[in-house]
Every structure is written in structure tokens, then in C-alpha cells.
Amino acid sequence: MRITVRIMLVLAALVCALAPASAAPTVDDASARKIDELLTVRAESGGLGRGELIERLSARLLGTPYGANMLIGSATEPEQLVADLRRVDCFTYLDYIEAVSRSSTRDEFFTNLVTTRYIDGRVEFAQRKHFFTDWAARQRPAATDITAGLSPAAVATTKHLNAKADGGTYLPGIPVVDRTVTYIPSAAVDGAVTNALRTGDFVGAYTPDAGLDVTHVGILVHTPNGPVFRNASSLAANNQVVDTALADYLRTVPGIVVLRPL
């Protein structure tokens, strides 16, 4: 009997060791209220298409203050599942909108946040989707990279993600990943391209810098006044989630990478 109990305890310990981290973080009251508000918007959205749903949800976070480096974890610090909607950076903004767009309850939101932010649903720094194109290239993709099909001017280039030009890495403890990144030069984003973009598309600002795919991300929204780039802006003039005219934003970046949500 004692042997049986001991075996059961060992098996239980193994299961706990192999199980993914908990998908139920501690959430402050303001974030909890905002999550519930977004879930209500989602529930009341009826048969809206995917892009229109993303637009409606993302609009509820317009004006949310910008916060840098919102996630917790590194090669030396244990990763934590963060769900803090009091402030967002450009990536966490997209994380929350993508996760809530697939959720009906708060528990579902936390579960979907894990699968949106992490590979294999494991809350670990090494499993975090650190790069924008991870959303299309890694397991359980949240989107499809449609950049190449938007313009004959699209350029494909090989990137060694995470590798700095001086031989170091941006993220210690994370391997370098070779990936073909396709972008459309800003000068080539003409009327045909903007017409092919859909509300709800995820847009990244391409960078030629070694080791990176994009430097900023946001959501494309078509409005009566033209397309806008909805983003958590760190610019001093904004410092919050704002709508920026796409044409104005394109003048500040080398090009764009476009992912379409699944």
C-alpha cells in the first residue's frame, strides 16, 4: 500500500513538472474590469467578421497609456503571465486584442493569452513569441503573412533574428532564428496596396537593422477619412493608444510587414 501511494505521488509530481504554467495570473481591479468590458463587447458583436471584431475591441483601448517593457521574465528571471491593461506597449496591445477576440469568459481569455504569447502554451521566456513574424511562423499561428501577395514591389530578405550586427544578441538565452522576412517599401504602398489591406490586419514597421524584423506594430483600420494605423505609441506627443493616419506613419518607416488574423 505504501509503495502504491509512493508511486502515485511520484507520478503526480511528474505531471506537475511537465504541465504548462498556470493560465490564471493575478490581475489588478482596473485590468479585470477592462477585460470584462472587452468580453462584453465581444459577446454583443454578433456575427461581425474577424477584422471588424478586432477593430471594435481595439477601439475600446484607445487612450490607454503607453507602458514600456510590460512583460516580466528573462533568461535569469522566471517568466510571469502578465495581464495588465492599465498600460500597454505595442506588442501587449495586440496580444490582448487577439486573445479577447477568441474568448467568451475571463478564464478563456487567460488561456488564449497564453497561446497567443507563447509557443506550445508554455509560460517561459524561451517560449515567448518575441518577434512579430513569430505570429505567423511558429506553432499555433495567430495570423498569416500576406505581405508578398499585396504588391509586386515586395522584397524578401533573410534575417538572423536576435543576432546583433556586432555578434551579440538582443535577448540572452534565446537562439538566433534564420527567417525570410518580406516587406513592402513604404514608397510602394500605393492605393492598390491600401485597398487590399483589410480592417483588422496586423501591421509591423519593417526595419533593416540586423537581427530584427520590425520595430513597432499596430492594427490597420479603414475609416471614412482613410486608413489609420491604430497603435500603442511611445512618442512623447502621444504616449498612449492612438489612431495615426497610415500615410503619415509610412513616411516615418522603411516599409511594412502585414499579417492577416486567422
TrEMBL record:
InterPro entries: AmiA-like (IPR010846), Papain-like_cys_pep_sf (IPR038765). Gene3D superfamilies: Putative xylanase like domain, putative xylanase like domain. It comes from the Bacteria. SUPFAM superfamilies: Cysteine proteinases. Residues 1-23 form the signal peptide. Keywords: Signal. This is Uncharacterized protein DUF1460. It holds the Pfam family AmiA-like.
